[in-house]
Write a structure and sequence with these properties.
Number of helices: 8
Largest sheet: 9 strands, mixed
Structural class: alpha+beta
Helix content: 10-25%
Strand content: 25-35%
Order of helices and strands: EHHEEEEEHEHEEEEHEEHHEEH
Shape: globular
Number of strands: 15
C-alpha cells in the first residue's frame, strides 16, 4: 500500500514517527518506527530513517506499507479461558505464568501459540511473532486481554487504546496501608537508565533531554477495597497503559505489589505480628498479586460498548483469604 501525505500547518514541528502514528493506516508509533528503519518512508523524495526528525509545513511524505507478515508461529494445544469470541476478536482470561507472544526467551508455550491452535484467523498487523496482539499483560499478571482476528479490528482496537478510551481495571494486593481512600498517580515512565529491563519514574524533567529520556505520560487511579494490618487490596484503573505501569506507580508511593521482586522488597521480616502460616503463604506466592479484572471497549464492528470481567484466580484468592484470616 502506497500513501501520500502533505504536512499541514498544525503538524509543523512534530516528530516524524509521531505524525505517522496519527495516520489511519498506522496502528502505533512502534509500527511507524519499523517503517522508517526499513526505508519505507520518503520525505520530500528522500529516504528518511530518523524517527525524531521534525517535519515542516509543506513537506511531502511518501509512505509504503508492506502487506502484513504471515503468521508462521507454530500452533500448540493449550488451555484457553475464552470469555467471548466472534469473527472479529477473541477475549481471553490469561492465566498467570503464560507469556503473551513468542520472544527470544520464550519461543513456544505462549498465548499466541495456543490461539493459533484454536483459530487460524488472527490479524497479521502485529507481525510474525505477535499476530492479533493489540495489548499485553506481563507474564505473571493474570486477567483479561483482547486479541484481534482481522486487520480492521486490530486497527480499530489499537486506536481505542491509543486514545485511552478503553476501560482497564485491575485488582492488586499491596504492602502497607494508604491513609486515603483513593488517589491518582500522575508520573511519566521511562526505561531505567541502568537496569534496562526495569521501568522507572521520571523524577525531574530536564527540558534538554530527548523525548525518550523524558518518558511517557502515565496516569493510574487507585481506590481501597479492603484494609488489613500491613497490606491493602486495591482497585486500579489505567488511564494510560505503559509497561509495568501499576507496579512502578504503586512502588513510587510506598505501596509495592506483594510478590513483585522487581520493584518492591517484602517487609515480612520486619513484621513480627505475622503468623508463620501467613509468612509461608506469602513466600509461596511466586508472582505479583496483580489481576486485570475488567476490560471494556467499543466493539470494532458494531460500535457497541462491551465490557468483560474475570474474578481473581485461585492463587490470588488463597493469598487474600490467608491475609483476611491472619
Amino acid at each position: 500500500m502506497n500513501l501520500q501525505h502533505l504536512i499541514q500547518e498544525d503538524e509543523d514541528g512534530k516528530r516524524l514517527d509521531q505524525l505517522l502514528s496519527t495516520l489511519d493506516e498506522i496502528v502505533s508509533r512502534t509500527q511507524a518506527q519499523r517503517l522508517l528503519k526499513s526505508g519505507n518512508v520518503l520525505l520530500n523524495g528522500k529516504a528518511e530513517m530518523s524517527p525524531s526528525r521534525k517535519v515542516r509545513t509543506g513537506q511531502e511524505i511518501m509512505l509504503t506499507i508492506p502487506p502484513p507478515e504471515s503468521t508462521e508461529v507454530i500452533s500448540e494445544a493449550g488451555e484457553l479461558d475464552i470469555l467471548f469470541e466472534d469473527e472479529h476478536l477473541i477475549v481471553i482470561n490469561k492465566a498467570a505464568g503464560v507469556v503473551v507472544h513468542p520472544s527470544a526467551g520464550h519461543p513456544s508455550g505462549t498465548l499466541v501459540n495456543y490461539l493459533l491452535h484454536h483459530c487460524q484467523d488472527l490479524s497479521g498487523i502485529g507481525g510474525v511473532l505477535r499476530p492479533g496482539i493489540v495489548h499485553r499483560l506481563d507474564k505473571d499478571t493474570s486477567g483479561i486481554l483482547v486479541v484481534a482476528k482481522t486487520d480492521d479490528a486490530h486497527q480499530n482496537l489499537s486506536e481505542q487504546f491509543k486514545e485511552h478510551s478503553v476501560k482497564r481495571q485491575y485488582q492488586t494486593m499491596v504492602w502497607g496501608v494508604p491513609e486515603k481512600e483513593h488517589g491518582v498517580i500522575n508520573a511519566a515512565l521511562r526505561r531505567h537508565p541502568v537496569r534496562r529491563k526495569d521501568m522507572s519514574i521520571v523524577e525531574n524533567e530536564n527540558p534538554e533531554e530527548s523525548e525518550r529520556e523524558k518518558g511517557k505520560y502515565a496516569v493510574t487511579h487507585w481506590r481501597v477495597l479492603q484494609r488489613f494490618e500491613f497490606s491493602t487490596l486495591l482497585a486500579c484503573r489505567l488511564e494510560t497503559g505503559r509497561t509495568h505501569q501499576i507496579r512502578v506507580h504503586l512502588t513510587s508511593i510506598g505501596h509495592p505489589v506483594i510478590g513483585d521482586p522487581q520493584y518492591g522488597k517484602s517487609p515480612l521480616k520486619r513484621l513480627p505480628s505475622v503468623s508463620a502460616e501467613l509468612s509461608q503463604t506469602i513466600a509461596n506466592f511466586r508472582r505479583q498479586a496483580l489481576h486485570a479484572e475488567i476490560l471494556g471497549f467499543k466493539h470494532p464492528s458494531s460500535g457497541e460498548w462491551v465490557e468483560y470481567s474475570a474474578a481473581i484466580p485461585d492463587d490470588f484468592q488463597q493469598l487474600l483469604k490467608a491475609i483476611q484470616h491472619d
